[in-house]
Amino acid sequence: MTIVNMHEAKSRLSQLVDAVQSGAEPEIVLAKNGVPAARIVPMPPKRNYRWGLAKGKWVIPDDIDALNPEIEKLFYGEDD
Fold first, then answer.
1. Would you list the domain boundaries of the chain?
2. Which of 15, 32, 60, 74 is the most exposed place for a label (fewest CB within 10 A)?
3. CA atoms of 25 and 1, how far apart (whole Å)
4. pLDDT tens digit string along 47-63?
5. 40 C-beta neighbours (distance < 10 Å), count
6. For residues 42 and 28, what is the distance between their CA atoms, to the nearest angstrom?
7. What residue spans of 23-58 are helical by DSSP H?
């Protein structure tokens, strides 16, 4: 863990971010008057979602909506 004072961080911000982004430093602590105030840490990797990844692994029955009126009665009660 590297501790850098604000004044130095202002002039080296790009280098500090590059160090964290590349993995050379796991985190950098920014200090104000020698007191830790903030951290520079890498962002988590962006997740790539693959739509349709489970396509064909499950079968949806044809009568999936058959119980909808009954379920609706359970939620809202019966209309008289």
1. 2-40
2. 60
3. 7
4. 888 888 888 888 888 88
5. 18
6. 10
7. none
